[in-house]
Design brief:
The protein is α+β, with helices and mostly antiparallel strands. It is 38% helix and 19% strand. α3 packs antiparallel against α5.
Length: 208
């Protein structure tokens, strides 16, 4: 990430608008800096209350999460908080996992996704938004997860942090089970198979 990249430069080199955010949602666009492309999440153009009550908090949380998890496998390596209301992260050229059909990827890719989830939890973090159609990307045969706006550092809570990481992290674990069910059912452990059966009993949509 170019350390001298500014918000105004990011705006002036906008390449493509990805999302024009509705109320309480950020605008998202691709910008170019030097030889690199980056994704900017931006609340700057929102109204005063939306910008300060939502944008400031969302951008601050995501910036802290990326900084705390720097070096974790499967996360973008280059990022920067451009301003109080904007954040930039490297653009990854790939496709979301929702566009990947069964049989297109092998077990090692899913094992890598499992390592990423376990790595987050071991560091006391939960992602909480691991949707394969938005936040899980396949880039040159490797998995990356993006968008840490919903991530929580549950492990920092005294006495009960480890338990909370396990409890709240069930959402991440279910995402992993879904990935295994779709792309590598032979990788499901007996415990995960039990979770899958329980999930399918209570939810109208079935994972098969």
């Amino acid at each position: 990430m170019p350390s001298d990249l500014t918000y105004n430069e990011a705006i002036s080199h906008t390449e493509k608008v990805l999302i024009k955010g509705r109320f309480t949602k950020a605008d998202v666009f691709i910008t170019r800096s030097g030889r690199g492309r980056f994704v900017v999440k931006d609340f700057t153009q929102k109204g005063f209350w939306e910008r300060n009550l939502v944008g400031r908090v969302v951008i601050g949380r995501e910036a802290r999460a990326y900084a705390a998890l720097a070096g974790t496998e499967g996360l973008p390596a280059r990022f920067k908080r451009l301003s109080t209301f904007s954040f930039v992260v490297e653009y990854l050229e790939g496709k979301d996992l929702g566009a990947v059909e069964r049989g297109e990827i092998g077990p090692e890719v899913i094992r890598q996704f499992e390592r990423i989830v376990n790595g987050l939890h071991e560091r006391g973090w939960v992602h909480l938004d691991l949707h394969r159609r938005t936040n899980v990307l396949l880039v040159d045969g490797k998995i990356y997860i993006v968008d840490l706006a919903s991530a929580l550092h549950t492990g920092r809570i005294p006495f009960i942090g480890k338990f909370l990481t396990w409890l709240i992290g069930i959402a991440d674990s279910l995402s992993l089970i879904k990935m295994k069910t779709i792309y590598g059912p032979e990788l499901l452990s007996p415990r995960e198979q039990t979770w899958l059966r329980l999930r399918n009993k209570v939810m109208p949509s079935k994972w098969e």
